[in-house]
Write a structure and sequence with these properties.
The chain has one helix spanning about 100-105, and strands at about 1-5, 15-20, 20-30, 40-50, 55-60, 65-70, 70-80, 85-90, 95, 110-120, 120-125. By secondary structure, it is mainly beta. The strands form three sheets. A five-stranded antiparallel beta sheet has the order 9-8-7-10-11. The chain has a four-stranded antiparallel beta sheet with strand order 2-3-4-5, with no helix packed on it.
């Protein structure tokens, strides 16, 4: 479920891209100039949105890169366990969403959170 496709030279810091099938956020990009007979090269450093894994790769400037669809939504915490039960503020559906320990320590029942739906996978990002 790709939202759009862009050239490697159009990538900026903070852009979300798909690397090896994993949605990632770009942390650094270096673009070399073209040579007399060559193409520009882009060295991209990205960190996985879901797993936090770092990826570094080099591609030609004309390479096509996929941009994932990231949907940012708000919800209310119903219960806290291994996973957090969240009720969406707009559709009122309940979801079981994984959460990191640092965010889980800030949460309490009936508090509001922002969660992201990245390529069909939900995750809690921050307390509102």
């Amino acid at each position: 479920m790709v939202l759009k496709i862009i050239n490697a030279t159009e990538v900026k810091v903070g852009t979300n891209i798909i690397v090896d099938g994993v949605p990632c956020a770009v942390k650094n990009i270096d673009i070399s100039k073209t040579g007399k007979h060559g193409h520009s090269k882009c060295r991209i450093e990205a960190v996985g949105i879901i797993n936090g894994q770092k990826k570094v790769f080099v591609v030609p400037g004309h390479e096509r890169i996929e941009v994932p669809m990231v949907e940012k939504r708000k919800g209310q915490v119903l219960s806290i366990g291994d996973k957090i039960s969240i009720m969406d503020s707009e559709s009122f559906e309940t979801l079981e969403v994984p959460c990191s320990d640092e965010i889980k320590s800030e949460l309490e029942e009936n508090s509001n959170v922002e969660y992201w739906n990245v390529e069909g996978e939900n995750m809690t990002k921050r307390k509102l």
